Every structure is written in C-alpha cells, then in structure tokens.
Amino acid sequence: MSVAAPTVNCPRCDSLDAGTVAHSPVPGCWTVLVCSTCWFCWRSTEVWLDGKGWDPEFRLTPSTFDQVPAMPPVPPLREPAAQRAPQR
Q1: DSSP type of residue 74
Q2: pLDDT single digits (tens) 4-39
Q3: Which among 29, 26, 35 has a CA at the least distance from the CA of 3?
Q4: Strand partners for 34
Q5: pTM for this prediction
Q6: What local confidence, expressed as pLDDT, does residue 50 receive?
Q7: Does residue 75 carry a pLDDT above 70?
Q8: 47 by DSSP, 3-state: which?
Q9: CA–CA gap between residue 28 and residue 9 (Å, rounded)
Q10: Cβ contact 31:45 at 8 Å
Q11: How far apart are CA 17 and CA 36, in angstroms?
C-alpha cells in the first residue's frame, strides 16, 4: 500500500506517520488516512476525530504494541442448531 507523506497525527497512537491513501470520487469530499505505526485507518469526515472523541484509555502507545495480540483469539465453534437444546 502506498501512503502519501505524513499529513496528520494518528488519533489512536498519536504517531506522526499518518498519511493519505485514498480520495473520494468527488474531489474534496473526504480522504482516507492510515497510520504506518499502528495501521489504524479513518476517513477525514469522521466527527469524533475532533480531539475530544477518542478516550485516552483506548489510545495505543509504542510500549503497548507488544501487549496487543496480532489477531484476537477465535472462540470455539458452536454446536449445529439441530444438536443444541431449545432456548427459552
């Protein structure tokens, strides 16, 4: 994926490595940005990005990257519907 030169801070990890990857088909409507540090992507029109909408509890930092699993665990499959007891 080609990322344009950094243009804005990432709202998730506050890295300066966020850049534009796509533009709207209608010029000037929106852009899609992606962070090269944490791979978070977002559209420029998302209103929660005003700086007040991102809960600091969920912000990632380079020290927390190693604690985040690359892929969340997948729960075991449920039994087929014919073998499950009816729900009441």
Answers
A1: P
A2: 555 688 888 888 888 999 999 999 999 999 998 888
A3: 35
A4: 19, 41
A5: 0.62
A6: 60
A7: yes
A8: helix
A9: 20
A10: no
A11: 5
> CB 15: neighbour CB atoms within 10 A?
18
Query: Is 76:43 a contact under the CB 8 Å cutoff?
Result: no
pLDDT class of 85 with cuts at 50, 70, 90? low
| Better pLDDT: 85 or 75 | 75
Distance, in Å, from the CA atom of 49 to the CA atom of 79, rounded to the nearest integer, reads: 41
Candidates 38, 46, 2, 45; CA nearest to 20 is 2
User: Which residue type does 31 have?
Assistant: T
Looking at residue 7, its amino acid is T
Phi, psi of 24 (to 5 degrees): -65, 150
Which two structure tokens, joined as six digits, stand for 26?
A: 């209608």
Q: How far apart are CA 51 and CA 58, in angstroms?
A: 13
d(CA 65, CA 48): 23
The residue assigned the tokens 């499959």 is 77
Residue linked to tokens 């962070």? 35
